[in-house]
Amino acid sequence: MERPARTESPTIGELGESRTLARILPRLASGDAALLGAGDDAAVVAAADGRYVVTTDLLVHGPDFRLAWSTPFELGWKAAATNLTDVAAMGARPTALVVAIAAPPTTPAAVLEGIADGLHEGLAALAPGAGVVGGDLSASTVLTIAVTAFGDLEGRAPVLRSGARVGDVLAHAGARGDAARGLALLFAEGTDAAGEPDPERAAEVRARHPELVAAQLAPHPPVAAGVAAARAGATSMLDVSDGLARDARRIAEASGVGLDFDGEALGADLRVAFAGAEDHGLLATFPPGVEPPAPFEVVGRIVPAPGEVLIDGRGIDAEGWDPYSGWDGRSG
Amino acid sequence: MERPARTESPTIGELGESRTLARILPRLASGDAALLGAGDDAAVVAAADGRYVVTTDLLVHGPDFRLAWSTPFELGWKAAATNLTDVAAMGARPTALVVAIAAPPTTPAAVLEGIADGLHEGLAALAPGAGVVGGDLSASTVLTIAVTAFGDLEGRAPVLRSGARVGDVLAHAGARGDAARGLALLFAEGTDAAGEPDPERAAEVRARHPELVAAQLAPHPPVAAGVAAARAGATSMLDVSDGLARDARRIAEASGVGLDFDGEALGADLRVAFAGAEDHGLLATFPPGVEPPAPFEVVGRIVPAPGEVLIDGRGIDAEGWDPYSGWDGRSG
């Protein structure tokens, strides 16, 4: 599935914008919703139900990814996956992306080709029918990927963070802490003596722990479960990107309820999943008596404790990742 | 209109993401098309005619702007203006933006507040009713602004680059070379002895040439003229962002026609407008006998010379700005 980057590749500075685009665009598909794809001032996308869901995200080399650890293919895959999950968390079916990339002129064209391949394969695997309808190329000293993703609510109301009610069932779909475990391994064993990300050492970590490293670098979030949850009547839902504790508190605060997790249901994953970011699972609530659709699993219940996150009835201090105060400035 | 940045401002690293957002979001409006604005995993926007126009753009400190020259307010204004013009160039009415910003943790919050004010005022002036429906904050060593803009075709077909026909009238709306003149002045006189952008010298340039500097740093493109052109039956249209020569060639190639400019109609501006980037005017073609709506002015005609740009019947070599090979890596 993954195409290795060629070692002999012209740089994007040597090629210029037009010839770089000519290498990237054929690797992408515009998808079923594209009425007009890339090539004009703007794209035109179908919005069958008269609305569209939109979310945007910036991925920056250093705080968000490191080329010493991620392949370009993985970067593209993750950029797609994380944005598709935000669309899914509204109960929408992802339809399209636009992608803007800023890169140093010295970047080999093969890096952008790899990102394009990862975007394409990530869309095909996680949101069949969705495509890349447009984009932009810019220059920067820091490789930066901006993705904006769109979705179709297919006539349904969006599933918000604010709809959880006391008595609802709390359910979770997707990974629980694997992305954080993978990142911890990379920081602990994929760095050189100075603590900087190191490709050779990262490859060794990857060989020893392929699933945990993949969960961090090329996650497979349960995108299709978003629509399934909405159809089943989910009362609230969000993408778990900042750790289960912090994201659970967001539903608790928006809905004015308490989220009481069942420690036994979460089992040994509980501590890691609560603190660890980037799992990109879905946390949702369902009315009493509704069976959460697979792959959702019941992990607790909604209780009358406004804004609180609890485990087995005891409140916890919900903390998480902050993109500014949580980053030390290393650019990997 | 412009609020000066305060000199005493906490950094966004000190504030963290939540408190930074709490300072920015109240400065923005979500606009008339927002069914659900910022605050959930994604926004929901109305698409009354079952389609939406979408364009995306990355603005990077160094190649695209310099804080030594631009105020934060001007950055926000320009980020809005350039994206709104791409929407207008499809014949669409701009409805919404999403904005993702990556900034060093040491950035004063006042910088992001200024950008938000510029976005807000730019939208209010150029596309009343449009708003910011969502966004993202990230960390980076380089200040980077990613804007994705949306528009409503109101039932009309999009105006493409490929629709010009021999015999059509060629018309232009907006500035002709002023942005390039302003940038040339800033490079010539707004830099220090080492050629680096210098705030004090730039202020002197601004005092001497307020209109040319404003055309570069806070342009007023003819956004409303895009819908007017579409209603009048424009056969092709684009945003003139890379110089009139290079952008004219895009229509010529996409339509398989020649664009023959009337040298007298362009007058003294011709040379600068042809080579100079970032004017963000609109270049459009109209069927014979159709009067281009104001502020469009007739500047030539469409002739049977596929892919060529001509002045008074003589072909020219259409060149322009390239974001990779045209940038020397200075980060200003």
TrEMBL record, chains A, B:
Positions of Mg(2+) 2 binding: D57, D86
Chain sites annotated for binding Mg(2+) 3: D41, D86, D239
Molecular function terms from GO: ATP binding; magnesium ion binding; thiamine-phosphate kinase activity
Binding-site residues for Mg(2+) 1, renumbered to this chain: T56, D57, D136
Alphabetical GO biological process terms: thiamine biosynthetic process; thiamine diphosphate biosynthetic process
Ligand binding (Mg(2+) 4): D41, T55, D86
Keywords from the UniProt entry: ATP-binding, Kinase, Magnesium, Metal-binding, Nucleotide-binding, Thiamine biosynthesis, Transferase
Pathway: Cofactor biosynthesis; thiamine diphosphate biosynthesis; thiamine diphosphate from thiamine phosphate: step 1/1
Domain PurM-like N-terminal: 39-151
Binding site for Mg(2+) 5: D242
E.C. designation(s): 2.7.4.16
InterPro entries in the cross-refs: PurM-like_C_sf (IPR036676), PurM-like_N (IPR016188), PurM-like_N_sf (IPR036921), ThiL-like (IPR006283)
Pfam families linked: AIRS
Source domain of life: Bacteria
Binding site for substrate: D64, E278, W321
Other facts noted in the record for this chain: Reaction mechanism of ThiL seems to utilize a direct, inline transfer of the gamma-phosphate of ATP to TMP rather than a phosphorylated enzyme intermediate.
Similarity annotation: Belongs to the thiamine-monophosphate kinase family.
Protein name, UniProt field: Thiamine-monophosphate kinase
